[in-house]
Amino acid sequence: MESKKTYVVTGGTGSFGKAISQRLLNDGHRIVAIHKQDIIKASELIKWAETNGFSDNLEVVKIDLTDNDACLEFAKNLASTSTNLAGLVNNAAIMIRGKIDNYSDNQFKDILNTNVIGLVNITSSLWSLLIRRAGNSVINISSAASRTGNPNELMYAASKGAVEAITRNLAREGGQYQLSVNAIAPHVIDSPMAQETLDNDQTIIDRIPFNQTGKIDELVSLVVYLLSADSSYLTGQIIHLNGGRLMMG
């Protein structure tokens, strides 16, 4: 086990974020789980940490990532309490489904603000802390939707395409500091969002060679690998976790 490090996980109390936070806590690290407004899920994570003896290593913070000033204030506070920030997992995202002629301007802005602007705000705010030492990592959670094209997910797919472009550019910027920046692009992984996708298009499973959805533990294990020293020479990559979906066109 590596010595205790601090990791920031955005969307840290949702399905993916909670599982990532729990695994890293189990591995002995300190976690700062960011959420926007889901008090119930935040309380569930806090209670789980208390029950399992991880309270001292978990901080749950409510931040609107679209507010750059709030992100800067968070980074300032983190710098004063932790000298060992080792990684950032940008997991926060929303999906609003709709056909191109039914999307409202506000819906499009909400998706871009959360999935793209929020990611840039928190990453830029923490950048000076992340580049302090070689071997730190940024992981952006993208989606296979950026490549496959799913019905009624135009704006979500567009936002995830932007996340992948940002990933490659950040990898170039972070290279001189040996800061690795990668993205994971899952297809349908067991979660409420995935179930909505399946409800929206029942034929999705038929287009996956494995003929099944992925498991959250598989996504979490990939995150842990990308945060570890075992992946220190890996950067600027979009890693597809999709059961072979992209092979099917």
Write structural notes for this entry.
This protein is of the alpha/beta class. The chain has one domain: NAD(P)-binding Rossmann-like Domain (Rossmann fold, 3-Layer(aba) Sandwich), CATH 3.40.50. 39% of the residues are buried. The protein has eight helices and seven strands; from the N terminus they run βαβαβαβαβααβααβ. Strands 3-2-1-4-5-6-7 form a seven-stranded parallel beta sheet, with helices on both faces. The chain has helices at 15-26, 39-51, 68-81, 105-130, 145-148, 154-174, 192-200, 216-227; strands spanning 6-10, 30-35, 58-62, 85-90, 137-141, 180-186, 238-241. Strand 2 (30-35), helix 2 (39-51) and strand 3 (58-62) form a beta-alpha-beta unit.
N- to C-terminal separation? 40 Å
In the CATH hierarchy, what is the superfamily? NAD(P)-binding Rossmann-like Domain
Mean pLDDT across residues:
89
Share of helical residues: 40-55%
Tell me which CATH architecture applies here.
3-Layer(aba) Sandwich
Radius of gyration: 17 Å
Top-tier CATH class: Alpha Beta
**Extended strand count:** 7
Low-confidence stretches: none
Structural class, by secondary structure, is alpha/beta
Tertiary shape: globular
Strand arrangement within the widest β-sheet reads: 3-2-1-4-5-6-7
Give the count of helical stretches: 8
